[in-house]
TrEMBL record:
Transmembrane segments: 7-24, 36-56, 68-88, 100-117, 126-142, 148-166, 178-198, 210-232, 239-259, 265-282
Protein's recorded name: EamA domain-containing protein
EamA domain span: 6-138, 148-282
Family under the similarity heading: Belongs to the EamA transporter family.
Organism: Coprobacillus cateniformis
Cellular component aspect of the GO annotation: membrane
Keyword hit for Transmembrane: yes
Keywords noted in UniProt: Membrane, Transmembrane, Transmembrane helix
Length: 290
């Protein structure tokens, strides 16, 4: 199996995980949780897991000064702020709508690459991007979206675009995904904990809330994050961003089935457009690798 096919598989699995876990996470809101607390627990619960993996694989935790700087910049601005803002948006708008607005980030990724790295897209990639963006806009439910939730979700997409660009164009490419995420979850745990104290957002939940939060943590912060980073390394930020538009489809469907969120004809059309863009992209990448 060539590297592009591996990248496609890694990215698809990661996006399915990222599409399901927000629905699981929002279930904890009825148990006394909120966006900041969920973000804190998501990272706290995987700190020992990443430490175990790093020790078990005998990976070195030593980084260069530039790598430490990149870990902080990409981690804080690209990951910490993304998670906090996206999870906070769930308190104002449905998970499906928030995920869709967040998924304007492929547009920001391509824009940043064009402005700062002079990268161009071929015709098929431009077609995939256009179809994906049109499909994403079909998901937006203006009647149920508050301005606060809208701004939080879109801003999370901007920061996540920075995260993907940083992963693709910084010294982090040369760091083990497990070592990078070990430092990342420690930083996020401390920063979000302090944010929770300042905003008085941390509270006690029933045991079910912590179990659901742990499920979100393991799959989103461990399995999903590592697979997405591997996908970026195999495909690059722009192609991974376009392929990742499978995530809002997953959130829409899961939100409809388990949270009672609406699934309109327009959203079905959006699903079809995103699937079409993904099919064209995968076919194009597979052919290029043969």
């Amino acid at each position: 199996m060539n590297i592009k096919k591996k990248g496609i598989i890694f990215t698809v699995i990661a996006t399915l995980i990222f599409g399901i876990t927000p629905v699981i996470g929002k279930m904890t809101y009825a148990m006394g949780s909120n966006g900041i607390q969920l973000a804190f627990l998501r990272h706290l619960f995987v700190v020992p897991l990443f430490l175990f993996i790093v020790v078990y694989q005998k990976l070195s935790l030593r980084l260069t000064k530039q790598q430490y700087l990149d870990v902080f910049k990409v981690g804080f601005f690209g990951n910490t702020l993304t998670v906090v803002m996206l999870y906070m948006s769930y308190s104002y708008i449905p998970v499906g709508s928030a995920t869709v607005l967040h998924f304007l980030y492929p547009l920001f990724v391509c824009l940043f690459n064009f402005l700062f790295y002079k990268q161009t897209l071929n015709q098929k990639q431009m077609l995939c991007l256009a179809l994906a963006i049109v499909g994403v806009f079909c998901f937006i439910d203006n009647t149920s979206s508050s301005m606060i939730g809208f701004v939080l979700a879109v801003t999370s997409g901007i920061f996540f675009a920075y995260y993907m660009i940083g992963m693709d164009h910084s010294s982090i490419r040369n760091i083990s995904p497990y070592v990078f995420n070990f430092y990342l979850v420690i930083m996020n745990t401390v920063v979000i904990f302090l944010l929770g104290l300042l905003t008085k957002s941390l509270s006690i939940m029933p045991i079910e809330g912590y179990i659901l939060s742990a499920i979100v943590a393991i799959f989103a912060s461990l399995v999903g994050v590592v697979l997405l980073q591997l996908g970026i390394r195999c495909l690059g930020a722009s192609l991974t961003a376009i392929l990742s538009t499978l995530e809002p489809i997953t959130s829409i469907v899961i939100g409809f089935l388990f949270l009672g969120e609406t699934l309109t004809v327009l959203k079905i059309i959006g699903c079809l457009l995103v699937l079409l863009s993904t099919f064209i992209l995968v076919k194009n990448q597979t052919a290029a690798g043969e």
